[in-house]
Amino acid sequence: QLHEFCTGITIVPPPIRRIQDRLRDLALTSQPDMGRRFWSNAMVAALRNLLAEKSFDAVHAESLEMATYLPLIHEWYPNLPLIYGSLNAEADLQRTMFSTDRRNLRRLIGAVYSWVQWRRLTRFEGHICDIAAHVLAVSEPDRALLQKLSSTPVTVVENGIDTAPYVQLPRNQALGEHAIVFTGTMDYRPNVDAVMWFAEAILPAIVAQFPNVRFYVVGQRPHARLDPLRETLHIVITGAVPEIAPYLQGAQVYIAPLRMGSGTRFKLLEAMAAGCGVVSTDIGAQGLGVQSGNEMLIADAPADFANCVKNLLADESRRKEMGAAARQFVQTHFDWSVIVPRLLWV
User: What contacts 58, CB < 8 A, 6 or more positions away?
Assistant: First the structure.
């Protein structure tokens, strides 16, 4: 599909990075983990050849993992404009992970890791922003955080989706009368934390009122931390699925119980476009500009979150009303037809 939009595509295999490599870099370098994740000599060679063969107006690196090559390009071609497209304010993301995990002794190693990465990413992310001619952020909170790191202009260009396939999805009860759904890559730490927190601190109160409730955790590569949940009657961990659409169609309530993160969530945009009734934390809804009670319900305390879910499960007309408002909101603010002109302006 990319060939429809690109005059040329060069494919470089992703590097194999073992846990030993990560531990070595952690101990022997000052680089953040993200800065090494996709680093490879093959990519360096491909970039050098491509830049030597052709003349470019600018180089756009999407995500901090790929922006790790921008300092090298800046060294080769100091006058070539560089654009950094951020997906998160990564240093602040690690700060929120540290803040959450340090309160749990079982997550002490994760907290220490995030503290180290937070410090390293603050320097690294700031340097990337410094050498860029322009930086893109996906939300106003991210823009403000990135602007603190550098004087380089930062412009908000939100995440977008093609809403058409989602707005055509009819609602159903294929997953059960009281189906709760969460979607995402399930080895991603904020997603794992969200599912564990919901399952342990929130779901029991919902089960007490709705004994037939089912919580569907949908996404590839489920982390080992989720394995104990497989034995729970009310939880279904699907692993990778061919399509996400059936789970959005069957969700009586879609949840985003995120306690870590930055940026904006594609998962929420998809659920809203599909007309789901949504309950989220403040962090989950960050950057969307929604109003609690209009396009979704927002709660941070476990009891409040549980009550929001129970209220939507019990009130079909409220779910439909909120789902329709959410769908209209995403079509108006986050459809690609709205987002692309902002990117072209930059």
Answer: 80, 81, 82, 83, 133
Give the chain's domains with CATH numbers.
2-156 (no CATH), 164-333 (3.40.50.2000)
- Quick: pLDDT tens for 113-139: 899 999 999 999 999 999 999 999 999
Is the Cβ–Cβ distance between 251 and 238 less than 8 Å? no
Find the helix or strand (DSSP H, E) in which 98 lies: helix 90-101
pTM of the entire predicted model: 0.85
Q: What is the pLDDT of residues 167-216, one digit of tens each?
A: 888 888 889 999 999 999 999 999 999 999 999 999 999 999 999 999 99
Question: What one-character-per-residue DSSP string does 141-191 give?
Answer: HHHHHHHHH-SS-EEE----B--HHHHTPPP--TT-TTEEEEES-TTSHHH
Of the candidates 98, 85, 79, 76, which has an alpha carbon nearest to the alpha carbon of residue 125? 85
